[in-house]
Amino acid sequence: MRFKGKMKEKIKGKKIVVVRKMGILLLMAALAGIIVVSQKTGEYLNSRNKKEVETSGKLKEKAEKEEQTVILDSGHGGRDPGKIGTQGTKEKEMNLCIAKKVERHLKEAGITVIMTRTDDAGMADSQVEDLKERVKLINETKPVLAVSIHQNSYPDPSVFGTQIFYYTHSREGENAAKVVQEALQKVELQKNREIKANDTYYMLKKTEPPVLIVECGFLSNPEEEALLCEDAYQEKLAEGIANGILSYLQI
Fold first, then answer.
1. How does pLDDT run across 59-114, given as a tens digit for each residue?
2. I want to staple 71 with a disulfide (CB 3.0 to 4.6 A). Which of 53, 101, 129, 143 is the partner?
3. CA–centroid distance for 69 within its chain
4. pTM here?
5. Residue ranges with strand state E in 105-162
6. Pick from 172, 178, 179, 207: nearest CA to 195
């Protein structure tokens, strides 16, 4: 009887041990499952958070670009033809052609662009009132930068090349001029003349935001006038100006 009792206790003890082991194994399996699920959940959340951060960053970048308004001013227009080239090229037409090409490049980069004119018409009947209207638009809009496109002229027909003017007392204007000048040097134009400070040009001294006057070339030089009439050369100029603006905006 004692032997049978001991056997029963022994068997009962083994069953308890087995049950405990199974319980431990089940608990370990459950814990492993929880860990795996936690890892998967963590990976999912990390991936989702990463995507949200990337999306947020892209939206922020887009918003910043949209906030960075640039004004492109096509010099002259309407009754005011500007300079007349040796072959009869009208500056106002050349200015608008190049400005529209610059506008395309900037819009492709996501920049908000305002044009002072999109056709032959000026902003007022007289030259004085026209300039006042352009200055008023720039001051009211408060762009990050305004760039006025022009063509140059000089009594000596051998003089040629692009040149950028900025307001003498504007550090931002000088900085922008240097950046755009550097970009123009990379597109292999005829010649890039040194940037120049000026405190007499009406548009420079009467505007509050930084303004550049970009003289794309000399219509008084027959060879440069012919180049300026070529679409491919205009594209080079536009690319250089646009790249310079984008570099200044740090895009």
1. 345 445 557 999 999 999 999 999 999 999 999 999 999 999 999 999 999 999 99
2. 143
3. 10
4. 0.75
5. 112-115, 145-152
6. 178
